[in-house]
Design a protein that fits this description.
The protein contains 10 helices and 10 strands. Helix content is 51%, strand content 22%. Helix 7 crosses helix 10 (217-225) and helix 8 packs across helix 9. The longest helix has 27 residues, at 126-152. It is an alpha+beta fold. The protein is elongated. The mean pLDDT is 91. The strands form 3 sheets. Strands 2-6-4-5 form a 4-stranded antiparallel beta sheet.
């Protein structure tokens, strides 16, 4: 049960659907929800596990990924404030095991809702139903885009696009390892290292341990759009 008013306000700010929901539903939502915290790097869910609750992120960032038989990872999507995992929601509604892995990338604060309530509210609350369906439709488009990237775009262009995207969040000094880039893109560390070295040799980036400095963002933007 969540009763502290400051926490209630934070949750309502992060999840605006609660403002338009029926007051009776909102009261019951806060009675049933529980606050949880996770440390960076903590495993949230493993492939094949049953989903016992649905987490809604209040702070921090989590990553959902697939792991191949060869040990190679590929990021399906990330979760931020105001979001929830569509795979978890799908598993709850269809009663199938979780088909991927989820891990906290940063310290995470979330509220969790029991499975029974997730199911019941789909039929009882229009606001809850629209929130879940909105998450699914938006994230489905992201996953389709990721599949198209893996299938049809060259890795060097995808790396350039990733670096440009990270620069929007972090500036021209990006804290990232070669393995992290490989895991995001579903490639190998060796391929990523070779391409980054090519970018560095041509004077567009500077690579150091755990960091990439972007020296020519316009070139990277152009590279990401090739083809």
């Amino acid at each position: 049960m969540i009763t502290e008013q400051s926490l209630v306000n934070r949750i309502t700010d992060a999840f605006p659907f609660l403002r338009s929901a029926d007051p009776a539903f909102v009261r019951y939502f806060f009675r049933r929800a529980q606050r949880v915290t996770l440390s960076p790097g903590q495993q949230i869910c493993s492939q094949g596990a049953e989903c016992g609750s649905l987490a809604l992120l209040l702070d921090g960032r989590a990553r959902v990924y697939k792991l191949g038989e060869n040990g190679r990872e590929i990021t399906l999507y990330r979760l931020g404030v105001g979001e929830s995992c569509i795979l978890t929601a799908s598993c709850i509604l269809s009663q199938v095991p979780f088909p991927a892995y989820a891990v906290s990338e940063t310290a995470v604060e979330a509220i969790v809702v029991p499975v029974a309530d997730v199911k019941r509210w789909m039929g009882e609350s229009e606001a809850w139903r629209e929130y879940i369906f909105g998450l699914i439709s938006g994230r489905f488009a992201d996953v389709i885009s990721m599949v198209e990237e893996v299938a049809f775009r060259r890795v060097d262009r995808r790396i350039a696009a990733l670096l440009v995207k990270r620069s929007i969040e972090s500036g021209d000094e990006i804290a990232v390892t070669h393995q992290e880039i490989a895991s995001d893109l579903g490639s190998s560390r060796e391929v990523v290292s070779r391409i980054l070295k090519d970018f560095e040799t041509s004077g567009h980036i500077k690579v150091s341990r755990g960091h990439v400095r972007l020296l020519d963002i316009p070139w990277l933007e152009q590279k990401s759009r090739e083809g």
